[in-house]
Amino acid sequence: MLVKKGTMYKELIAQFPQPAVLVIGDLMLDVYLKGASTRLTPEAPVPVVDIETRTTVLGGGANTAINVKYLGAQVSFCSVSGQDEEGVKARTLLDVAGINSRIITCPQRSTIVKTRVTAGHQLLTRYDSGTETAIDRDTEEAFIRLLQQEFVRHDAIIIADYNKGLLTPAVVAALRTLNLQQKKFIAVDSKRLECFKSLSPSLVKPNYQEAVNLLGLPVQAHCRAQQINNMGADIATRTGAAVTAVTLDEEGAVIFDGQEPVYCCGAHPVISPNVSGAGDAYISAFTLASLAGADLAAAAELAATAAGVAISKQETAYCSWQELNASLSVNDKYITDLAQLQHISNMYKAQGKKLVFTNGCFDILHSGHVNYLGRARQLGHILMVGINTDESIRRLKGNDRPINSLHDRMEVLAALGAVNHIIPFGSEQDDTPAPLIAAIQPHIFAKGGDYTKDALPEAGLVEQLGGEVILLPLLPGRSTSMIIRRIHTTPVLKLA
């Protein structure tokens, strides 16, 4: 579906920058302590982790604001923090991200921090700190005044409620009054959706666990979509929502228009997913797609794609509009735009994939090419192939080449399972693949064994960018030039 409707989806994404979105939610920091563990502590049978890196990113409702921002929209974020070092750090990160942060500081509260300790890719423990009780009356009144100022300035509201004390009944009542005065698109992501029924939300996004808790259903390991599919009336009654998107992990999502299930969206498979932030990316993309005029099926597909990008990253993450656009192009083997090539490459790297790049004319594809490309692909996860344009080949090999046009050469290459992407290159100023290498920054640059590293003008650039040049032996007796010579020298049989 993404391949057939990719152009339509990209037109919707192009409209993401138009609306102004207000995100209201709990402010948190996610801290990642990463290292290696090779021994147990003598105090107890637990691993000792030698911390190598410490990363601090925005979490909770702030991560929803990050997703909205990087998907291209204008965004403001309203929340409460402690008057502490962690609160300062959170506000600094919001400012760096270009988010209009309207944060009320409360001396009686501590900013919420979730700290994860990992050894390699294994999460060992998570410990939380910060105030999770309801905000006090003075802070509540100040926060309501803030919402009264910001509500009218925005086209849509996203409520990212983690039940950490910010969204009190009085705050929700104030939002209801504001929405009655000036109707907005309101999207709600919360573990307690029934608390927001009075808002008559435009969209709610429970995950499976939240949905079964809301409905009092048993948890199922399989056939979750079938279990949820008939519950539209109950969900609508309990949430008052116009649209409900129930996310079901690997089973995708079921979308309800009022009480009726209208679409079932498949999940995007991700190896070793990190689910932190998946819901933030999903509701952000669904909201922006809806504001851009997408139907529910298109909004669901874009939201699922955004969530897939986010969970492919190793930390609480966002999906940018460039990554979303690139992800929609992953199934497109042909890439002609260098900026798009760079975004796709960055997305693959964020997923931990090793990129292999090679280039050539591939004028008459033969078994030597197929063998070489297969072995190049085995060097990593993704093989990107630069292919000389017709004009470039004529400059390099003479006016009698190429035998086959660029379109035909690309079409034949695209049929090979080893090849992920094909990018034409070449100009009067530079017929080397250096611009492609600069955009991709591949882990490996593969070339045939008929070259030497010293004879490759691109080798220095590859190594300067941190890549490795690998020369692969070629099958003997296979080359385009030999095939052409054989054609020219083979006698033509004349019919009597």
From TrEMBL:
Residue ranges annotated for the Cytidyltransferase-like domain, each copy included: 357-485
UniProt-annotated binding residues for ATP: N207, Y208, Q209, E210
Region feature (Ribokinase): 1-330
Pfam families referenced in this protein's UniProt entry, alphabetically: CTP_transf_like (PF01467), PfkB (PF00294)
GO MF annotation list: ATP binding; heptose 7-phosphate kinase activity; heptose-1-phosphate adenylyltransferase activity; phosphotransferase activity, alcohol group as acceptor
A biological process from GO: lipopolysaccharide core region biosynthetic process
Location of the region described as Cytidylyltransferase in the Swiss-Prot/TrEMBL record: 357-496
Purpose: Catalyzes the ADP transfer from ATP to D-glycero-beta-D-manno-heptose 1-phosphate, yielding ADP-D-glycero-beta-D-manno-heptose.
Protein name, per record: Bifunctional protein HldE
Species, as recorded: Chitinophaga agrisoli
This protein's encoding gene: hldE
